[in-house]
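Work Package 3 (structural annotation) set out to generate three-dimensional models for the target panel prioritized at the project kickoff. During this period the team completed the workflow that converts sequence records into discrete structure tokens, so that structures can be stored uniformly alongside our sequence database. As a representative example, we reproduce one entry of 257 residues exactly as it appears in the project archive.
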Amino acid sequence: MQGCRPVFVVAILKVRFTRNGKSIGLFNGFIISLCVCYLTNSYDWTQEQLSKPLPSGKKFLFVKDGAMCIINRLDKLPKVPFKHTFLIRDPLRSAESTRRLFMSFWRYDGKPEDFDMYHQNPYLDLDLLPPNPPYEVWRYVKANIDPNPVVIDADDLQTFPEQTLRKYCEAVNIPFKKSYVNWEESDKSLKYYNGCIDQMVLGKQIHAFEAAFASTCFKPITSPKPRFDDLTPDGQRFVRENQDGYKEMYDSRIKPE
């Protein structure tokens, strides 16, 4: 890897969380990092690779990342004309699922209602990020790269998968295929991924992708949207910080018609 010094690291972590002197949970697990790079070099290297012409015989290149991973390095986005797509979800729905993911990821064993995703996270300090990274990246892309990036709402995708994906394929100039909405139950797709393999391995260990690997299609939403007053304090903060940006992005989404 150019411009990167690879270092193989296995970190064994045992962290006890306390509140007012009282133990409220334990993270007991390990994080494996297959390649730790100097960040400036790794961002530069990634930008360089994504800006190269497609390999012979390839028609499309999909790149997926979380907004929080690039929010402080927006100048490192590819310099070639990618069509940026933002997948959004109502914060009222995503607040609790985000908490569950973090609790699983850190193997938190305390009471769920005592967990605080902002202050009991031994790896990622959310207070160091802007309140709504996807919204901030979307605004940057609109102002500097593409005034009309694609926005897909998760509820639309689950409820109207074929209509939504047909609209998406039209927006990015890719022929639609029926196989995009039905697939075989399998995790074999992992072998085709180029990216952070250690993250995918850890995701499998904590069953973060279990429902996805066991699925064969998009399933309509059946659960009601949570009420704000029923959320935990950190969940309510999550909604407050993300709701306005979500609504603005939602208004510009692809509409399944």
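DSSP finds nine helices and four strands in the chain.
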